[in-house]
Amino acid sequence: LMLPGSLLNGLISPITGKLFDKFGPRALIIPGTAALVIIMWFFTQVSVETSKVTLLILHICMMVSISMIMMPAQTNGMNQLPARYYPHGTAILNTLQQVAGAIGVAFFISVMSNGQASFLKGSSDPTAPGQMAEAMVTGVHNAFVIGFGFSIVALILALLFKRTKGPAES
């Protein structure tokens, strides 16, 4: 279910690189973040009846918007470093990306689990398959609502984004 979006993300990154070179980071980051806000809102509307195709399409759209955000933001950030520090900047960026990803996954899984447990606590028959499915959707909904909030903050920050030039080498 997630493979098509991930493959498309990898295929689109070189295209966003060319667009970054031509138009700069703001031309990609702002529309990418705006699209992410819209997509995250759609994810908050997921229910037990949501089809796999709908989830697949939303995930593909989300990965395209993330591609429009991440590559230009990372490149713009690296451009602030003198060339001799590129290896260090790359190492720090890769490490922070892995650590932040792990923290983010743990955080959102906790939100989802707490939402699920809270739903089941108020359920008359928490072992019924329908109730368990509803509980899962409730937990996922809670996680996406928080993700939606984060995407709004990201959009506000994207509006402040500026193109940077690297410092002159001495």
- Spell out the helices and strands N to C: HHHHH
Largest sheet: none
How many independent structural domains?
1
- Give the % helix: over 70%
CATH topology: Growth Hormone, Chain: A
Distance between the ends:
50 Å
Helix count?
5
Mean pLDDT: 92
Low-confidence stretches: none
Gross morphology is elongated
Radius of gyration, rounded? 19 Å
Level-1 CATH class name = Mainly Alpha
CATH architecture: Up-down Bundle
Considering the protein shown, what is the CATH homologous superfamily? MFS general substrate transporter like domains
Structural class by secondary-structure content = mainly alpha
Q: Beta fraction of the residues?
A: under 5%
How many DSSP E strands? 0
What does this structure look like?
The protein has 170 residues and is mainly alpha-helical. It has a single domain, classed as MFS general substrate transporter like domains (Growth Hormone, Chain: A). 79% of the residues lie in helices and 0% in strands. The radius of gyration is 19 Å and the shape is elongated. The relative contact order is 0.15.
Provide tags for this entry.
single chain, 170 residues, elongated, mainly alpha, Growth Hormone, Chain: A
Summary of the model, kept short:
Helix 4 (86-121) runs antiparallel to helix 5. The chain is elongated, with a radius of gyration of 19 Å.
